[in-house]
Amino acid sequence: MQQLQQAQRPKKLQKEQILLPVGSVIRNVNGDRYIVEGLLGTGVAGAVYRVRDGHKRENVFAVKELIDPNGAERERFMFEAEVLMRLDHEALPSVYRVFENEKLKRVYILMDYIEGRDLEVLQKEQPNECFSLPLVLALLTPVVSALTYLHRREPPIVHRDIKPANIVVPIKGGDAMLVDFGIAKEYIYGTATTALGQGSPGYAALEQYSGGTNIRTDVYGLGATIYTLLTGVVPIVSVERVTGSKGTDPLKPVHALVPDLPQGVSDAISRAMSVSRDDRFATIDEFWEELNAQTQNERQTTESSMKPERRTPRVRKDVAPLPILEQRRLARKKRRQTVFFAGIGGLLAVLLLAMGIATYVSHMSQQRVRATRSVATATVPTAVPTVDQSPYPTLATSYKGTMGDVVNNTTTSAAITQLQQNKRTIRGFCNGLGLTGPFDGTISEGGHIVFTVKIPDGDTGILFEGDVKTGGNMAGEFYIISQKTGQRTGEYGTWSLTKATQ
After folding, report:
1. Rg over CA atoms, the chain
2. What is the pTM of this model?
3. Cα dihedral sign for 384, 387, 389, 393?
4. What is the phi/psi pair of residue 189, to 5°?
5. CA angle 259, 141, 161 (to 5 degrees)
6. pLDDT digit string, tens, across residues 193-232
7. Do residues 241 and 273 make contact, with C-beta atoms less than 8 angstroms apart?
8. Closest to 84 measured CA to CA, from 76, 100, 95, 75
9. 235 CB contacts (<8 Å, ≥6 apart)?
10. Beta bridge mates, 274
11. Backbone angles phi, psi at 23, to 5 degrees
């Protein structure tokens, strides 16, 4: 156990003086030159740099470095590079080549540099330093797809270092990407999996400190990442969870920190973060499906609770049903009575019509006499007010508020005008982020609202999703989308609107 406690301590670069300074040139045997422009991260045995191609200055890459490896370390590093070069997924950076500098005793991997901001940085800019549940699900969808892709390789690839700092949202648009700028601290290749990185305190599963990782190790890392994004709290180190006092797990469930979150979501995250590997979800897909199912169940429950109660007609149980023959006899009697009263009614109608004609003639003659004396005035009957029985919340015709762009860290004013509502469908005009355009969308009985703004003569539009709050104000998240494909570009943020005073 003492070895486990020592292993949990974060490791730093052992020889900081051997880092390459800005301006250094990394060369390979083919004569390619890469100029160091900055340090992206460090590990126990190397670093990660941002470099620029010396021949094509417009090309920028990330270079991972392993310093002075022994024979086994070099072999594992080269093997990992070969595996990564065969990967092809839009949420994973591409790896182009691996090369060695024997003079400097260093081995390098050249890969994509993703210019953007990671979720650890973006989280600090959120209200209470927490992301909302819908935004977390939207951001992590491409990351989950990438992890599923890695786990289905032969042999499976286990990332082992999933955390907010390793998920980057590109500045130029696009989905979030799973990266590893912290250099793999300990490359391990076993018979079942290929492992990348030892992991980070708070996000690393217990088995990462003693060996024997598999795809359930990444289930823990994903669960811990979601835990942090929703609560703003980094989970307790897994080793401390088994060495806690009184034999109880000191990790508080998500629901205890954020009571507004669904209990089912909290339970799913707790299961994904089980200290025992066998108690976790078997796959990333299984965890993700349960998380989304619990979120959907909570939304449906909320909407159902807000629907008006539908009462069924009361049936008198003290009246016994009549026999068939008696029912038929009464039906014939009723028809005869109907015919009789219909005849009487017809006669009365004729008499009333005659009386009406006589009265009309008399009235018209009196009107002609009065017309010479005064001008008749007309009265307009008062309309009988109707009661709106629609189960959908009634929206105002205009709103105003703000939109916060998370990626670019900017806030702009926003407004909705000329809003028209027909039960669940809505339309109108929206202004935000300096853009204006018409929108159309829907609102559910529970107050969940979704609408898309079309920007005239533009390539992108804005997808709004949120809820009507108590008092009629609205808030939620927005996403910039392609107007051609409807796909999200990666730029997103939050919005809040209040009823505009008339």
Report:
1. 35
2. 0.64
3. positive
4. -120, 120
5. 85
6. 555 556 688 999 999 888 788 999 999 999 999 999 999 9
7. no
8. 95
9. 202, 203, 224, 227, 228, 251, 273
10. none
11. 100, -15
